[in-house]
Amino acid sequence: MTKSTKTHQIFKYLSYIVLFLLAGVGLYLWYIGAFTDIKVLRSIVGVDTHPLLAPIIFFALQIFQILIPIIPGTITLSAGVVLFGPWLGFIYNYSSIVIGSTLAFLLVRRFGKKFVANYIDEGQHTKYLKWIEDQQKFTRIFAVAILLPGAPDDLLSMLAGLSAMRLRTFVVILLIAKPLSIAVYSGAFSFLTRFF
To answer: Where does the chain cross the membrane (predicted)?
Structure first.
């Protein structure tokens, strides 16, 4: 077994363990009413009791889910709005996603294909590598995809790290294109929280 295969296996088992733990935490939070009572959720994170610590915890969670994409991004995006409201939720989501995505880009730029191979299987890996062969086309696809809600931003950030895209170009695209999709999520979740 090669070193990269062992690393892939370790990431795979760690993902299963984290998913199992998250499922347990999710069940516990559901049991205590964190998903049905916003006051319970805010008290768990400490939004009211630790107003300075709560955003730091949220930032760490948001960056973690980008670098180790086992928590769906829609969950953390909605949590930001529910916990901090539409405006602060938008600011925290936006800034933490830009930081996390840039870190993912830089990690892939540093460690190369081996880093990306930990997140996607070999068949997909080959398919996605074809995307970055034409740099100008990939840059356009990346910009449009980041603009749209629901795009696989984490994977796209990693692919951008494998491409010839400059860090400045990557960050500028994130800064300009990402607010729209985050605003859509923030507005939608803010609207839904009025009825549930």
So the answer is: 13-31, 52-71, 91-108, 141-164, 170-192
**DSSP codes of every residue in 138-169:** HHHHHHHHHHSTT--HHHHHHHHHHSS--HHH
Query: 């980041």: which residue's tokens?
Result: 146
Compute the average pLDDT of residues 100-118.
83
Tens of pLDDT along 39-95? 776 777 777 777 788 888 788 878 877 877 666 677 778 778 878 888 888 899 999
Length, in residues, of the chain:
196
Which residue do the tokens 């916990």 mark?
A: 83
CB-based burial, 76-86: b 16+ in 10 Å, e otherwise:
bbbbbbbbbeb
Pick from 191, 188, 195: nearest CA to 74: 188
**pLDDT recorded at residue 195:** 47
Structural element, H or E, at residue 31: helix 3-32
**What does the buried/exposed string (b/e) look like for 26-49 if buried means 16 or more CB atoms within 10 Å of the residue's CB?**
eeeeeeeebeeeeeebbeebebee
Burial of 191 (0-12, 13-18, 19+ CB in 10 A): exposed
Please name which of 116, 114, 161 lies closest in space to residue 142, comparing C-alpha atoms.
161
**Residue 20 buriedness (CB in 10 A; 0-12 / 13-18 / 19+):** exposed
